[in-house]
What does this fold into?
Amino acid sequence: MGSVADKIAKRLASARGSKVVDMAVWREGRKLALEAGFGGEGPVPAKFADLDPCHGIYAMAQNIVSLLAETISMLREAKGFARIVGDAEEEYMPKGPPMSPLTVSHFSMWAFFDVRFGSSRETMGSCILRMASVLDFPDWLTETVRLMQGSRMGFYVNCGSEGETALLREVGTRETVPCMVPSGYVGGAGEIWFVRMLPPPHELCSRHIVFTTPYVIRDYPESAFVEYLEREFARMKGRKSPPRTDDLHGHLMKHGPEPNHWNEFILCAYTGHRHEAIFLTGIPDIRESLPHA
It folds into this structure.
């Protein structure tokens, strides 16, 4: 029968140029990329001579994914996606006060690349990757979307900074990664960050990027999050139908025990914000530690 992604790609291939599926959005996305300095091979070096184009590459890819997702979500094959994301948007991203601590960058990445739907458990990102050849994606765009699809949230220890570069280490690990932080927040050593880190998408990029506005968790040390993760892994292994993966950590941070797990954590843990960072406190599975649980 084929996966949901196969069905969507087949439908788009047969509907190109018809009124059934309006692919003018892809033409619009391609035009936006060209105008921003992205040719068939990616960023044009002359336009980024003195800049790290990392954020620009990912932001452009996200814009194109958003345009395509809007069209795909109207297909019957994607009704599961529309339901999950629509319900979450209503619950966690209200259009009026009180405003949500979930940022657009966090919610969009979760919706496009983490939310699974259909019997084959696809994401919008995996569906778009399946369509890449149908839509004649340039290689740089396909690879960038692939990196975004492979990304997830994570808890990181701030190990200090070098100028505007934050040095982050995932909790329970030893490797420190230099990261650009587009929001401008570099914080201080010892802070725990809850963010989505993405690798350099192009040879012109020298650092990883914290693509979401940093969620900075106060009052709890690294050890508290290592212990939390161990409890979640034990629960995952104890399920009647445990996840079919050897990477329990990656699965947990990407999909959670249930789709809105991380959205709920942010909402319940919120304590305050400023333009470049949002502040949280608490441990996800300790209800009394969360101020809004």
